[in-house]
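Predict the 3D structure for this chain.
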Amino acid sequence: MHGPVPPGWLLVALCAATGLYCLLRTRSAVEEQRRAAGGEALMGFGMALMAVPAAALAPPRWVWAAYAAVFGAAAVRALWAARSGPHHLHHSVGALAMVYMAAVMAAAPGAHGAHGASGVPLLTGALLLYFTAYVLWAGVRLIPAAAVAGGAPSTGTAGWGDRPEVARACRLSMGIAMVAMLLAL
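Done. Predicted structure below.
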C-alpha cells in the first residue's frame, strides 16, 4: 500500500494477528464460528499482505491480478452464501473492496496519491462511507449488554475460539484496517 512505512507495518501486524485468530477459530466447536472463520482468515491475511509498505516490497503487476482473482472468487462465494443469511453480504463487500484496491494498485504500482488532483473517486468514497459505518456499528456491538443494562457480566464457559465478542473484535479491527487501507489508496 501507499503511505508512511511505520503505520503500514502496524497495519500488517494487526491484519496478520486477526487472520491468525480467525484461522484458529476454524477449529471451533460452534459451527457458525467455523463457517465464517475461513473467509475472515483469508481476508485478514490478504489485507496483511496488501498492507506491506510499497517502500519495503513493490510486487509486480501480476500479483495484483492474482489478488483480484482470489478475492473475486471469495466475493462470489460470499454472495452465494448470502442466500442463507444477509451477514455474508458484508463479506462480499469486503472481498470486492479488495478486488478494487488490487485493480488500483495494478494500474498505478508504486505511485503515491493515485487519485491525483481530481480527489477521491466515487467508489473509494462509497467504500469509505460503508466501512466507517460498519466500524461504528461493530464498535457499538462490542459494548456488553450487561454494561448497557446495568446488570452483571456473563460468565459463560465458552472456549477461547468460541467467544463471539472476540470474533466481533476481529471483524472490527479488519473494518478499521479497511478504512486505513482505503485512505492510503
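The helical segments are 5-25, 31-50, 61-81, 87-107, 122-141, 145-149, 164-184.
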